[in-house]
Design brief:
Length: 139
């Protein structure tokens, strides 16, 4: 009886190990293969990244130089996305005033992020060091 069980377990193990080789490889679609795949809009990704950069800087995870470099890169990307998606103005026809307005909009959005508690997202007064809701120190 023991020999029968050992042979059965060996056959099951061989089947489980060998089945993927017998079955062959199936081609799978990459996660992001084409335009019909659902994706998050680029604008949301860039704005989210700008918020994360701001958060990491205030948490002292980024140096001043790294913060400025990343902010400049992603602010430029945000400006080009806002121009192409929202304003539908070609980048070559953008006036410096319009670019300044877009940068001001980005700065205003970043400022609203910095007026929230980093931990519980409660609204804070400008310059408030501790959150009135959770008591955590703001960086």
């Amino acid at each position: 009886m023991n020999i029968f069980i050992m042979i059965l377990m060996t056959l099951i193990a061989l089947f489980l190990v060998g089945y993927p080789f017998i079955r062959g490889s199936r081609t799978t679609k990459p996660a992001f293969s084409g335009p019909d795949e659902p994706s998050v809009p680029d604008r949301e990704i860039i704005m989210s990244t700008l918020g994360e950069i701001e958060f990491d800087y205030h948490m002292n995870k980024l140096s001043q130089d790294d913060y400025q470099n990343l902010k400049n890169v992603y602010s430029g990307a945000a400006i080009s996305i806002l121009q192409s998606e929202e304003l539908l103005i070609p980048a070559k026809q953008v006036s410096p005033d319009l670019e300044a307005e877009i940068e001001a909009e980005i700065e205003a959005e970043l400022q609203t992020l910095s007026n929230e508690c980093l931990f519980c997202h409660a609204k804070l007064k400008p310059g408030q060091e501790h959150c009135h809701n959770c008591g955590e120190r703001q960086f």
